[in-house]
Amino acid sequence: MASIGDSGGSKSIIDAAENYEILEIINRGLAYAIIIAGLLSVIFIFVGGISFILSGGQEEKIKSAVSTIRYAIIGLIVTILATVIIGTVGKAMGLNIIEYINFGDIIDTITNITSQTEGVPSLD
Hints:
Blueprint lengths: L12 H6 L3 H32 L5 H35 L9 H14 L8
């Protein structure tokens, strides 16, 4: 098991899972969840904006678009607050979640997962 002081910044979540490093898995999982929540909030802000533009002046569609934008902004604020809270509590507990919030690292992990499954025969 990993000690609290281990940062393991260069390891992927797959390497951590194979070595049973629970703190590494927790750090990576929280970082990925925060990034996904932030990206979804931004995507829904754009969806709401497009819906607003395409509403054609219809009152019900405008209300729906404004509601989508409002809840997406609330979600983005909650994500930012969660990042601050998790970062603060994590440092007190020895977890350094902020160093793992890196979009390039997520892309590398996805690439590693897909390259490992390329040798698996398909069902086609």
